Amino acid sequence: MKNKQILVCAIGALIISTQACKDDKDDNQLVHDTTAHTLAYKDFEKPNIAADNPLTVQGVKLGRTLFYEKMLSRDGSQSCASCHRQQHAFSDTLKFSLGVKGLPGKRQAMGIFNMAWHDNEFFWDGRAHLLRDQSILPIQDALEMDETLENVVAKLEGSEAYRNQFFRTFGSSEITSEKISLALEQFMNSILSVDSKYDRFLRGQTTLSESEERGRALFFTEFNPGFPDMSGADCAHCHAGKTFENDLYMNNGLDSDAARADSGRAKATFLAKDLGKFKVTSLRNIAVTPPYMHDGRFTTLEEVVDHYNSGIQNSTTVDPALEYTRASGGLQLDAQDKADLVAFLRTLTDEDLLTNPNYSDPN
To answer: What is the pLDDT of residue 28?
Structure first.
């Protein structure tokens, strides 16, 4: 009987040991995994992902974890997601985000989605050439996360889970600031906004209300002061295509030369022709990303429409099309026109982006 009990125990231990090995193999084995991450971009054009940093399942997973990692900040209180929140299309509803010292930044936090289609630098002034460059600058900014890359690397090296995940992603457990930037770039390139009501309308899956349809017509119709009944808001002049932006830096008439407080693109290029120009942002999800403009001066979409209708300021670098509307007495939109335009802008909200668990905090 005793020998039989010993045998049963041995068999049981073997089963447990075998299952443990199986679990370890399935979940914890360190293998450099280059399985590609598939982007479900629906009817968008195929994005131009950098050849030296293709999206992989493990790379996106690591980047997502780092995006929500508070160890990237000096005191462990903030992550990238602190100022780029999913429910607000990865932007901030504060006029200026507050950093680890409680001090405000200098510009409104931009939304993060459809980055894979951006190829004209990053930040409002384009000072970061690639998305990977942009990803690590807030870490080092004294007004934001206020940390050094050396300290971030040291903190992450103290985590076995991170060392293992870097191995799965890059084939080496060595952690570097470059690898951090590449992983963050992969995750941000994976964040897509391609399923708004307007997208479904284009696919014939839904219809627009009368107000939304009138707003759509105004949005895409050019300004024509000679024929007021046929004149539109000409929004697509700057916000075009599937991404609702144009990969340009433009002066949208917020300030005169004398009133300008931010030199914009010129801060990165040092060129006078770029004074007051800022990156043209996407209008996708615009209803959930207030406040608006680089300095957050407008709190509602109605204020934004009012600006383009009758608030354009003349300056030496203002966009010629906007100067034309100013010199012609404005867009001359009435109250119903403005309400319809706002109604259309609200159809650009992508609820899937705001709730997709693939973009949420993995912890």
So the answer is: 57
> What is the per-residue pLDDT across 250-285, written as a single tens digit (0 to 9) for each?
999 999 999 999 999 999 999 999 999 999 999 999
Over 260-276, what HEC string results? CCCCECHHHHCCHHHCC
List Cβ neighbours of 313 (8 Å cut-off, separation of 6 or more).
253, 254, 255, 256, 259, 326
Say if CB 278 and CB 250 are below 8 A apart.
yes
What is the rounded CA–CA span in Å between residue 52 and residue 170?
Answer: 12
Domains recognised in the chain with CATH numbers: 57-193 (1.10.760.10), 197-347 (1.10.760.10)
d(CA 207, CA 249): 33
Contact 57, 35 (CB under 8 A): yes
- The DSSP output letter for 292 is B
| Cβ-contact 297, 107 below 8 angstroms | no
Q: Is the backbone peptide bond immediately before 291 cis, with ω within 30 degrees of 0?
A: yes
Q: How many CB atoms lie within 10 A of CB 349?
A: 19
Question: Alpha-carbon distance 180 to 79, whole Å?
Answer: 13
Q: Are 309 and 338 in contact (CB under 8 A)?
A: yes
Helix or strand holding residue 278 (H, E): strand 278-279
pLDDT at 238: 96
Q: Which residues of the chain have pLDDT under 50?
A: 1-27
